[in-house]
Design a protein that fits this description.
heterotetramer; A alpha+beta (345); B alpha/beta (281); C alpha/beta (266); D alpha/beta (145); B: 281 residues; alpha/beta; 2 domains; 9 helices; 25% helix; globular; D: 145 residues; four-stranded parallel beta sheet; 37% helix
Chain lengths: 345, 281, 266, 145
């Protein structure tokens, strides 16, 4: 996402509605957070939007938007048995032009972290192709909950990083659009007449107030020095060892590759995987380098807050708090990291 | 819209040219490129590995066990352990399997020029060293003395039995083969004893010498102190790791150990490198 | 709440147990499992209607077991899980005791017989919302039910939170984790998800205590607990053996009666 | 013109009774419809419930499961255990929306060649009338990008 000069424009509420309609009309896949009520419970899913009215403007979606560029199951290869031989068929990722509309700024920032690992050495064709076809229109947050911690990881509720367009709510309705990339500019052109030039300095609705709980910049050093600290065992006691945190995480990119075949043909699939699952590192011989849940919990923390900064000069976390909300036993990452920052010298 | 980026997950198709049964459950495949053009263009260096596919079952990671000085084919040696290796073990000569690679870093042969080399291997861990041993033998004049210490549980568990016999006869190298106590059999002319003890008895000089160690964790654990006592420096001891992997490309996260991706920064590490990593391998 | 804290303190001080697993304050209104090992940690124990998670799950975890004899704050479902685990030889009587909040006091149950006796007095009902959902689903046509589950299970990502949270999913190596053969697809595509959840529901039939912890654990809000309720319900209806009623091994699908009645075999 | 629909049936049968019964059908020269693929297993106790789903996923329009009559199991009680599982499994697959009309359970002894023929004929006719079944088969391609 090539950053250009940030263009500032405004949109009325009805203009946003018209923009979403224009995007859908243009044949793009428009995905955004939506409130779903089912079996008496509310949740927010990232799903195809039919109109702006569908959009959940506050609150965090359960799942992240990463599925748009890194689907939970994708085909890498297809093959057919031909006698003793194999006919390999390459696979082109099907990726319709996609707009992630109205996602939170933390989600938008996550794509850089995904890219850091998936493309650091060689380019991942599937991920790259999908990412190249994706435009991110984020809406700044005016609410934060007890799991949110973007301000602890170097961001803020109205951070425009990673967004092609960031929409900030105006105090008296409508939005300020910060158009940061050429891809964002393309949407402006598509929504002809929807965006208005800025007449005067706009009065923004206040962004969510979220005090930092710790400073992630201090973590790499602290973690590096305390790999064997009892804190990791203590924190992981209640961890059940499922993959809920990793699968809802917008930056978790670990995956598995699995073959599925019948007697005539088969396919090679990439599926999400998680370092929290025991099977992740288990060798066929039975040897497991991370045999205990505490080691796996530590790996998750270290991967994001020590190894990523060391290797990719970026955190592997955007502070969205999805992991904490999804955790069946309320492993609150913000609290755990704050504890680490506080207690590790 | 087709992308121009190649699909890194697409393997070469390889024809099994020969199968050698090495030991119970252990086989060596000689693999030739089904597409001769791909074979001609293919390059690798000793120490590297690949992902071998049994189509329908998945991929498994093994080193390339042959030397890059031997052109036109690659070899791999594996033990039937899981889903993929069981399927590979069922294959016949002429069957097609997949191969992605070469991946990972290499043994720095140019650094070893003029030095004495001692290779220490245990059990099924000889294959990664076999590549570099042959590589060095094929460039024999570049190195000082070459010694191979190889141990297995029993005589039957020794791999590359024919090559061991040949190596044993070569005047330009020294081969010491040992089996665990109780693993010998009538007519066994090699040593009996654990690898670390044999190395201790052998007492190779550490001066101007590089040790390349590969074997089960317990063998490595007990051999390293012996080498330290003999005066080997931590940058003069090499090993090669085999973490579980899915991609081989530094993406899937499975082999991640500390800041290292074993598939990219490894599999070859010096002891000095290894001590900077958490012991999660 | 104070009585629980006091009880925990006493048990730890006397060395009766090394660990009390109970509920503590979590994020916002949430409650979370906490592991109390010293008297001064006992003040963190919370007891209120939000404390519903089935903590028996922890009884089979190696890391928790290693901490020593355990007192478990137990809901009715937790008690049933303890009995089912006992029936399956997964817990030992001498390694645990159950702390049951009862009319403002804490009742301490130290034997499986005590737990059985108490369970026999407790109503065994599922939540009304769940009962309503089951009724609704039962009233649907088979095509409508297929559509319902296709949509619901479509969201499953196979994070296995349901399995991890379930006290009865203690297998060291779940059938999902075995790959020779790969009986159920690993991938969380539509077929892989259906197969996984059908297998899970079958494996819990006759063993499920209907605590609903699996459904509560699902990050995507898939009502998967209804699947085990359905298979467990089938066992209860046809064989009269509810999961978690007894510490004796009486698993309905490990036995049979020559005159088991069905009406579909030709 | 489109071919008339011919259902594909998969039959999971036990080695000792139903398979022998089906054999008898043939040696007795009783004709029956050729829509069934027979998979022989040692005992009904070995017929994993998931095989029903696997058959549908791979394109079967109907499934037959058959083994020894109660009290006749070669292994004494395999069929009794199987019966209990079927009783629960039927309820469960009905609950997840699989049409029970497509799954037939039966006891057929080695002497009941005629019963095998009529079972296959009746099931084939019923499934033919129901039409193709793709509810599970279509899932195989769903959810993969």
């Amino acid at each position: 996402m090539v950053a250009t000069m940030v263009d500032r424009l405004t949109l009325s509420d009805s203009a946003v509605d018209a923009l979403v309609a224009a995007l859908i009309r243009s044949g793009r896949r428009v995905l955004g957070p939506q409130l779903v009520r089912s079996q008496g419970q509310d949740r927010i899913d990232i799903a195809p939007l039919a109109s702006f009215a569908d959009l959940a403007r506050d609150g965090q979606a359960v799942a992240s938007a990463k599925g748009a560029v890194f689907p939970k199951v994708e085909r890498l290869l297809h093959y057919r048995y031909a006698g003793k031989s194999i006919e390999l068929a390459d696979v082109e990722p099907a990726s319709p032009p996609t707009v992630l509309f109205g996602v939170r700024p933390c989600e938008a920032r996550a794509f850089a972290a995904l890219q850091a690992v998936l493309n650091w050495d060689s380019e991942d064709k599937f991920f790259s192709h999908r990412l190249a076809n994706t435009t991110v229109v984020a809406i700044s947050c005016t609410e934060a909950d007890a799991s949110c911690f973007c301000t602890s990881v170097g961001s803020r509720p109205d951070d425009g990083q990673g967004s092609d367009i960031l929409l900030c709510r105006l105090a008296h309705g409508g939005y300020l659009a910060k158009v940061a990339t050429s891809r964002g500019q393309a949407l402006v052109e598509l929504g002809q007449g929807v965006f208005q030039a800025l007449a005067a300095e706009p009065e923004l609705a206040p962004a969510a107030a979220l005090a930092p709980a710790f400073d992630a910049k201090t973590l790499p050093q602290k973690l590096a020095a305390h790999f064997d600290h009892p804190l990791w065992v203590e924190q992981s006691l209640r961890c059940l060892g499922c993959g809920a945190c990793a699968f809802v995480c917008p930056t978790c990119a670990c995956f598995s590759i699995e073959d599925e075949a019948d007697s005539r043909q088969g396919q090679r699939l990439r599926t999400w995987d998680s370092c929290g699952l025991r099977l992740f590192t288990l060798h066929a011989s039975g040897h497991n380098p991370r045999d205990r849940q505490s080691q796996r919990w530590r790996q998750r923390v270290y991967h994001k807050f020590a190894y990523y900064p060391d290797r990719f000069q970026t955190l592997g976390c955007v502070g969205c708090g999805k992991c904490s909300r999804a955790c069946p036993v309320d492993m609150n990452l913000k609290q755990h990291l704050a504890e680490a920052a506080r207690t590790l010298p | 819209m087709a992308t121009t980026t190649p699909n890194s997950y697409k393997p070469y198709l390889m024809r099994i040219a020969a199968i050698t049964k090495e030991a119970p459950g252990v086989r060596t495949f000689r693999l030739e490129f089904a597409d001769a053009g791909e074979g001609t263009a293919f390059r690798f260096a000793t120490g590297q590995f690949g992902l071998y596919s049994a189509f329908g079952e998945g991929e498994s990671t093994f080193c390339i066990a042959s030397s890059p000085t031997r052109k036109g084919y690659i070899e791999c040696t594996f033990r039937e352990t899981g889903r993929v290796t069981a399927s590979l073990a069922d294959k016949d000569v002429g069957d097609i399997i997949g191969f992605r690679g070469p991946y990972g870093n290499v043994f720095p042969l140019e650094r070893w020029q003029g030095k004495h080399l001692i290779f220490i291997a245990g059990g099924i861990a000889l294959p990664p060293l076999r590549s570099v041993i042959w590589n060095c033998l094929d460039l024999r004049e570049r190195f000082a003395t070459m010694t191979v210490v190889y141990g297995a549980r029993t005589v039957n568990d020794l791999v590359y039995k024919h090559e061991l016999a040949d190596w044993g006869k070569r005047p330009d190298m020294k081969l010491v083969v040992t089996v665990d106590p109780g693993g010998d059999e009538p007519g066994w002319t090699g040593k009996v004893g654990f690898v670390p003890h044999i190395v201790e008895q052998l007492a190779p000089t550490a001066a101007n010498t590089v040790a390349i160690v590969c074997g089960p964790p317990i063998m490595i654990k007990l051999t390293l102190p012996v080498l330290a006592k003999l005066g080997f420096g931590k940058t003069e001891i090499y090993t090669t790791l085999e973490n579980r992997m899915k991609c081989g490309l530094g993406k899937c996260g499975r082999c991640n150990t500390g800041r290292s991706f074993v598939c990219k920064d490894g599999p070859v590490y010096t002891l000095a490198d290894l001590e900077r990593l958490p012991a999660e391998y | 709440m104070e009585s629980l804290q006091r009880k925990a303190q006493e048990l730890l001080a006397a060395g009766t147990v090394k660990l009390v697993i109970g509920y503590g304050e979590g994020t916002g209104v949430r409650r979370r499992p906490i592991f109390v090992r010293t008297g001064d940690q006992a003040g963190s124990l919370v007891l209120d209607p939000a404390c519903t998670q089935n903590l028996a799950t922890y009884l089979t975890k190696a890391e928790v077991r290693a901490l020593g004899r355990t007192a478990l704050v137990a809901t009715p479902s937790t008690l049933r899980s303890i009995l089912q685990l006992a029936a399956e030889r997964q817990v030992r009587e001498e390694n645990l005791l159950a702390l049951v909040p009862l009319a403002g006091t804490i009742k301490e149950l130290t034997t499986f017989a005590d737990i059985e006796a108490m369970v026999a007095t407790l109503p065994d009902e599922i939540a009304r919302a769940d009962q309503e959902m089951l009724t609704q689903l039962g009233a649907m046509s088979v095509v409508e039910r297929r559509a319902f589950w296709e949509k619901e299970l479509g969201r499953c990502v196979k994070c296995y939170a349901c399995r991890a949270a379930c006290p009865m999913c203690y297998c060291e190596r779940c059938t999902m984790d075995n790959n020779r053969p790969q009986w159920v697809p690993v991938a969380s595509h539509a077929l892989g998800n259906l197969e996984y959840h059908v297998v899970r529901a079958m494996h819990l039939a006759g063993r499920c205590v209907r605590c609903g912890t699996c459904g509560a654990a699902c990050p995507h809000g898939i009502p998967i607990h209804l699947l085990t309720f359905a298979s467990e319900g089938s066992v209860r209806r046809q064989f009269g053996q509810p999961g978690g009623a007894s510490s004796r091994p009486t698993y309905a699908l490990a036995t049979f009666k020559p005159d088991d009645k069905e009406d579909f075999i030709r | 013109m489109a071919e008339p629909f011919e259902p594909k049936l998969t039959a999971f049968v036990c080695n000792w009774c139903t398979y022998a019964g089906a054999d008898l059908t043939g040696t007795s020269r009783i004709k029956y419809q050729a829509n069934v693929r027979v998979i022989r297993l040692p005992c009904t106790g070995r017929i994993d419930f998931m095989m029903v789903l696997k058959a549908f996923a791979r394109g079967s329009d109907g499934v037959i499961i058959s083994g020894c009559h109660p009290n006749d199991c070669h292994y004494t009680s395999g069929n009794y255990h199987a019966r209990r599982r079927w009783m629960v499994f039927r309820d469960l697959i009905d609950f997840v929306g699989i049409d029970l009309a497509r799954v037939t359970f039966s006891w057929i002894s080695a002497a009941e060649g005629a019963k095998w023929a009529s079972l296959v004929n009746e099931t084939t006719d019923r499934v033919r009338a129901l039409g193709p079944y793709q509810e599970i088969g279509k899932l195989a391609a769903a959810g993969i990008e």
